[in-house]
Amino acid sequence: MIKIIEVSDSEGLKALLKGRSGGQEGIASRVAAIMQEVRERGDIALCGFTRRFDGASLTPEQLRVTDEEIDQAYSMVDQEVLTSLKLARDRIRKYHQKQLTRSWFDTEPNGTLLGQLITPLDRVGVYVPGGTASYPSSVLMNAVPAKVAGVSQVVMVTPPGADGKLNPYTLVAAREAGVDEIYKAGGAQAIAALAYGTETIAPVDKITGPGNIFVTLAKRMVYGQVDIDMLAGPSEVLVVADASANPEYAAADMLSQAEHDVLASAVLLTHHRELAEWVRQELEKQVALLPRQDLAREALANHSALVITGSLEESLELANAFAPEHLELLVEEPFRWLSRIRHAGAVFLGAHSPEPVGDYLAGPNHVLPTGGTARFYSPLNVDTFMKKSSIISFSKENLELLGPDIIRLAEVEGLQAHANAVRVRLKSQSRE
Question: Where, in this chain's numbering, is substrate bound (predicted)?
Fold first, then answer.
């Protein structure tokens, strides 16, 4: 079961941090071969890999989901779940609308105008895990911000089941989120299709959404051909707790991530040894009740720990070193300590803010940086789907004023043509 580590055990902590990488050995070459085949053979390769990996025999004409299939999905879903999906969509949209930024322009007294033009991407690909599973929340979290940003074409790919069909909840969520095109394709082959295009799928400008290690490596390989959001790794939660924390809550929140897969990480940092013991007992009790307990037990045993620190301050510093995907502050007065947090994908404050609230309904995005990348990555957001262009309009007076400085800087870099592009204008203006 889960181990208890003393904060003085530097090797134990190092192993815990290192263990989040997920292991990519031997997979990259397989992914590269898949990508190359899709790039060269298009739909035929895409259908072949779909048959091989998903067990679904599809023709190129069957790759794109029809309106009729989506209409049928609406008749198959539970109406109360549909109501909850719409509520989640609306809250996600409202939150992300607050992130919108506007183009700006600044005019100087001499007539020079400088500014920044902010425009949405034209076409974005969204990857949603699928097959036998259903992840409508991932659909909403990727597609809704893209539409808020103004992306005109949002394209979704997700692997089909062996019967060639997609989960009805995934399809319904896609329509509710405003997805424009849906294709039955998953894995590295779907990423290749989005990046390079096939006879059926037009290439996109950016690919977002989490997937397994094949998807993650494929996204890394196409970066530069297209943009990507981030390289997602196994799910993780880190709970900072003091004596006021409810051990039942802490254990439940840790298991909410441990049940994802065997590589998931659930860590508790506390300076109260007694609390750690109570949490361990609760983990034993609660994991036995989970349908996915085998996955959770392996994640707890191999990639998780209860860490005993010397103080709450030390717990918070260690939390920053982890830079976790999800960080929970199960402490008295959590807002008092929020300013100490520098690195986290999402921060959950207090006993009434469990991590699943953020996964589904709160409004902030659940596509978050993992594996310590919260040190430099941000959650998926509206800016993910925007790009910025600089605007420069120099006046005649300002070019005369600053031109000599530009010439000097160009010449010191040995770029005479750069200097000349300014010099010829200054000469021309002096003759006027």
Answer: 235, 257, 260, 326, 359, 413, 418
If phi over 0 gives left and psi between -120 and 50 gives alpha, with beta otherwise, what is residue 184?
Answer: beta
- Please report which residue ranges of 133-272 form alpha helices under DSSP H: 136-149, 168-177, 187-196, 213-222, 247-258
CB 82 within 8 A of CB 172: yes
pTM of the model: 0.94
| 212 belongs to an annotated ligand binding site | yes
CATH topology of domain 233-376: Rossmann fold (3.40.50)
pLDDT digits 0-9 by tens, 13-70: 878 877 655 456 679 999 999 999 999 999 999 999 999 999 999 999 999 999 999 9
Instruction: Compute CA distances 424 → 412, 413, 431, whole Å.
Output: 18, 19, 11
Identical fold, 28-228 and 233-376:
yes
As a whole number of angstroms, the distance between CA 314 and CA 306 comes to: 14
CATH architecture for residues 28-228? 3-Layer(aba) Sandwich (3.40)
State what percent of residues in the chain have pLDDT above 70.
Answer: 97
Tokens 């006993």 belong to residue: 351
In this structure, are residues 213 and 188 in contact, taking their beta carbons and an 8 Å threshold?
Answer: no
Do the annotations mark residue 257 as ligand-binding? yes
Per the annotation, does 293 bind a ligand?
Answer: no
Sequence spans of domains, the chain: 28-228, 233-376, 396-431
418 marked ligand binding residue: yes
Whether 360 and 317 have beta carbons less than 8 Å apart is answered as no
Q: Is 271 annotated as a binding residue?
A: no
Active site residues: 325-326
What's the CA angle centered on 308, arms 303 and 312, to 5 degrees? 115
